[in-house]
Amino acid sequence: MKRMIKRSLILLLVGMAVIVAVPFLKEKEAEKKSENGFKEIQESVTEKKDRTINVEKLKRENKDCIGYLEVPGTSISYPIMQTRDNPNYYLNHDFDKNYSFYGTTYLSAYCDLKKSDNLIIYGHNINGGKMFGALEQYKDKDFFDRHRKIYFTADRRREYEVFAVMSVNVKKFKYWKFIMARDEKDYNEFVEKVLEHSLWSTEEKLKHGEQMLMLSTCDNGKGDADL
């Protein structure tokens, strides 16, 4: 089977996370529970023979699961959820639908896996590089150069190549509204806007028809400014 290479970008932004005030010990207990839960999921769906992900198993356990995301070189290895009738449900719920300040990484309710030009996946930036906090590493140019592959498994495993890392204010660039291009001109204008706000990017530009994958989180080090 021909390997499918698509384009992706890492998008880091402030303003999407929910700040939860909880006692320190309770927070640590919840943190450990969430991390163990994700570790158990990863171990249960990783095929020992070829290390591929059995997404169908996850879908049987929770119909909201639509895929699995892996970012080699980071701790990101999580199921991806989607709830069209309650867009941000997994912002504060775990895979088993219990309340969790960690939440679970999820695809925008407005995205269609097969049709959308831009797939946007959200996840919390948890201190210590947990969840999408691991994306902070892409602020480093050397890390960006050495970790360009991202894998997203839905109906099959797709390889995406990171082409840009953005630091952006969501009020100045409403990237989250771009799901489907009206035409080639609209697509190209969006790509140019992405490059305008990029910290790092590749020389090769995207072509109309290439699907983008955005990983979106907060920059905890910038206060109310977007990364």
Automatic annotation (TrEMBL):
<dbReference type="InterPro" id="IPR023365">
    <property type="entry name" value="Sortase_dom-sf"/>
</dbReference>
<dbReference type="InterPro" id="IPR009835">
    <property type="entry name" value="SrtB"/>
</dbReference>
<dbReference type="InterPro" id="IPR005754">
    <property type="entry name" value="Sortase"/>
</dbReference>
<dbReference type="Pfam" id="PF04203">
    <property type="entry name" value="Sortase"/>
</dbReference>
<protein>
    <submittedName>
        <fullName>Class B sortase</fullName>
    </submittedName>
</protein>
<keyword id="KW-0378">Hydrolase</keyword>
